[in-house]
Design brief:
mainly alpha
């Protein structure tokens, strides 16, 4: 037999053995756990996580990108955080961002005093203050000079009080850029802005994991600004 015939026979035997060995190895791996893990086990079940979240955390999670949701899912599936801790951590992060957005809005409104529009408002406010002062002086002078009866004086004082209040309201509107100044006050304990101690602890634990995502930051900032603007509008009506 030629050497080429021997080589060809060896090749055929080796190839046949290889084909037979592959399914056997795959079966053994699936049975004893030493083979490749099924791809379904590598997937993170985000639907279960989403249903475990609630309130602010759930709203934030729903608005995140698919990659960010997957990253958060892996944090929970790895055991680094429980679903409850992630819920508290997301709530804490959103509330913290809301406070930043709220005070930033207040700062921008205050800084607007240095703009052309701000200067015009300052002039209008000064005009109202001057009018209030002159009205007060002229009305009192008229009441003192006319010798009016106590009843008429009381009526004049009542009208003066109403006129001054209208002018004061106009001044307040200008000072608050269309809304009462108290809209820029946050009450301590308002859980829309202030995280509980439990949420803060979870938030710190989440921060320690070092997750960094520009898309996450962008979403949470947008949600916080939107909430802050709605808060200013709604609360400013009181």
């Amino acid at each position: 037999m030629k050497i080429s015939d021997i080589s060809a026979s060896l090749f055929q035997v080796t190839a046949a053995a290889s084909v037979q060995a592959k399914p056997a190895t795959a079966k053994a791996g699936a049975k004893d756990g030493t083979g490749p893990v099924a791809s379904t086990n590598d997937k993170v079940d985000l639907s279960d996580l989403a249903s475990a979240l609630k309130g602010d955390a759930r709203d934030l999670f729903k608005n995140l990108s698919a990659d960010d949701r997957t990253s958060l899912g892996k944090i929970v599936s790895s055991g680094a955080l429980s679903a409850d801790e992630l819920n508290d951590a997301l709530s804490s992060a959103l509330k913290s961002e809301r406070k930043k957005a709220f005070w930033q809005s207040a700062k921008e409104d205050a800084d607007a005093g240095g703009t052309a529009d701000g200067a015009a408002r300052q002039q209008s406010m000064k005009a109202i203050s001057d009018r209030m002062e002159s009205t007060l002086e002229s009305r009192y002078a008229a009441m003192d000079a006319s010798g009016m009866s106590p009843e008429d004086r009381l009526a004049a004082l009542s009208k003066l009080s109403g006129d001054l209040k209208d002018m004061q309201d106009s001044w307040d509107q200008l000072a608050g850029i269309g809304m009462p100044m108290k809209a820029y006050t946050l009450k301590g304990g308002d859980e829309r802005f202030f995280a509980t101690s439990k949420e803060q602890a979870a938030g710190q634990k989440f921060a320690d994991l070092g997750l960094r995502s520009g898309s996450f930051d962008k979403v949470i900032s947008a949600l916080a600004k939107d909430f802050s603007q709605r808060y200013l509008t709604d609360e400013g009506a009181y």
